[in-house]
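Q: Start with the shorter request: fold the first protein.
A: Done. Sequence, then structure:
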Amino acid sequence: MSAANPVSIHEQRRLIRQLLDDSSPDDAPTAYYALFSDPTRATLFIETTDSGQAAGFVGRFQTGIDLFRPLVTLRCQDAGIAAGLLDEALTPGRPYLLFAKLNQLALVGGSLHINNERILLIYQLDPARFHPEINVLVTHNTAHDGTPRCKISSGEAEAVAGVNWQSPAFAEIYVHTDPSARHRGWGGNVAAAITQTVLDSGRIPIYLVENHNEPSRRLAEHLGFVDTGARQVFADATYQGHPGRQG
């Protein structure tokens, strides 16, 4: 049965916490959105057992990734639970962004039409392997959402590193280097700077990257990030309706 109108999203988050290990990089991306993202931009749908324990949830979130396509994540025990919750949470024919642990992908095939599927490796920093790289050209500031940002720029060439999101335990970093700024070492410099900033905040840096992106993987491994073996799916998705009612 579905959870009966919990008092607040904070109560909902307390209920689903048992489904997630927010101290594990494996669950970190899903846990951020489900447990720690802006509650005014988050909507949760929960299935509970007869004893009142959470058996699964679907979360729908408004993000800066795409203003017109809400991000959807989930953690469900089986496809039946996923189908029922997606039917509550989503509108048929509307596009969404699916961002979830890879093992959840098999549960949504009857409900979601998936395009542009990307399987992301989750790298986590091993602090013992990290050696800071100092470049006096690196400037430190904050992004519009208050998260840290490190940059090197000269003329039209720029390398930037920042944080996509941060939870109490983790922060996902990103790196972007203009083509004209490549082969100068700037990408590694700003990545090292943001990694140090995250460590100083008491969080563990993680980095999500596709398997075939060898330059990004080499950069991460050079800084001391290691592949955790965890996999996350990020994909375009269109809700098709409950599979039991289609056709």
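Q: Next, the second protein, separately.
A: Sequence, then structure:
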Amino acid sequence: MRSNNFMAAVLQLAIESNDKIKNLDKTELAIRQAVEKGAELIVLQELHATQYFCQQENTECFDMAEPLDGYTYTRCAALAEELDIVIVMSQFERRAAGLYHNTAQVIDGAEGRVGIFRKMHIPDDPGFYEKFYFTPGDADGPLAGFKPVQTRFGKLGVLVCWDQWYPEAARLMALAGADMLIYPTAIGWNPDDEAAEQERQRDAWVTIQRAHAIANGVPVLVANRAGFEASPMAGESGIEFWGTSFIAGPQGEFWVLADAESEGIYCADINVQRSEQVRRVWPYFRDRRVDAYAGLTKRWLGDIES
């Protein structure tokens, strides 16, 4: 039976090594503390079992990948069953030889895995060399595309990090019936950037995700990592992950907001039915001009003659 009222938690942790056992021990402790606070839905940050290895292009890093039923999943699944909670976890997935994904899995208590989402938008920027490692998720198929995952708390529209910049992804999840949008994330500053530029980047990141909540009339849950991770590349400055995990309501209002530095467990009460109330006042889905949006399927329109 679906529960319309529950407490959710986003975890914001620093990862100090690539020791999966140690990291998942730390994550398990945080999950148990979240449950003690009353949380029933817990969102973990992107690639939480290791440090963010995409600061370099190194084929040895592929050894950290796991199948869907690997160690990271079995640890989280056992915990979800024991505590009777829903966990949104993240992993470096080995799907086949030479085929790897950045994958989120949704585990619903004793039911185990109820759905997955493979990251669709893959960045390739200094310090974020993800195209070297990750194949984008499939566009079609039973485990593909922008499909919400059904849980006891409704349909979860799970997206991953770089997907958060794309309103198309959020909209498609909402159109498919997502009751909330969830973003496991690993994003931060270049320590060499000026403070003003750092703040502009973080503010843009917060704003775009709050806008997804507003435009679609659903809560948004964002779990980002914190702390500094040095780059293994000589001369590179590493990444200072900017934390700022949050849960926002369907009008973009903050229900809980973390700071940039602290590790922590950030909880908020969620009432899924509030989206119904908000959408009655702001009926964006009613007023969409679906007959005029064909251009959204094109790469660019500026070079098309009128």
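Q: Describe the second briefly.
A: The CA atoms of residues 24 and 115 lie 21 Å apart. The domain at 5-283 is CATH 3.60.110.10 (Nitrilase/N-carbamoyl-D-aminoacid amidohydrolase).
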